[in-house]
Design brief:
Length: 102
């Protein structure tokens, strides 16, 4: 059975257009596997909006995030760090989930 991942609705259009190709999560969402298909829905209302395939899951520390990660999120590095620190306050150990649309 397909596992699920949610995204805040403000990221939906970036995912559907292919501008956002990674998401950075905490350890609770680090157990996805390469090749796994995930059903993607909106965090706010649970509405399904696409399926993605996981390309990789890679540990990263907050201070290791670069402009490359930010570009893959379709953000500046400052915006990315701000978003992550709001979602995961004071968390240093993160995971980059790389994906593409199916
Ligand atoms: C439940 C939960 O954690 N939901 C999340 C977490 C992260 N995101 C987005 C925000 C940024 O674009 C990246 C990096 O964290 O992933 C999200 O949409 N929903």
């Amino acid at each position: 059975m397909k596992r699920e991942i949610t995204f805040y609705s403000r990221f939906e259009s970036d995912i559907l257009s292919g501008k956002k190709t990674i998401t950075i999560r905490d350890s609770s969402e680090s157990h996805f596997e390469k090749g796994e298909l995930l059903s993607v829905s909106r965090n706010e209302d649970g509405q399904y909006f696409c399926t993605i395939e996981v390309d990789s899951v890679t540990p990263v520390l907050m201070n290791e995030l670069t402009e490359v990660h930010a570009a893959q999120e379709n953000m500046t590095l400052g915006e990315l760090k701000q978003v992550i620190s709001e979602i995961y306050p004071r968390l240093n150990e993160l995971y980059v989930i790389s994906f593409h649309m199916r």
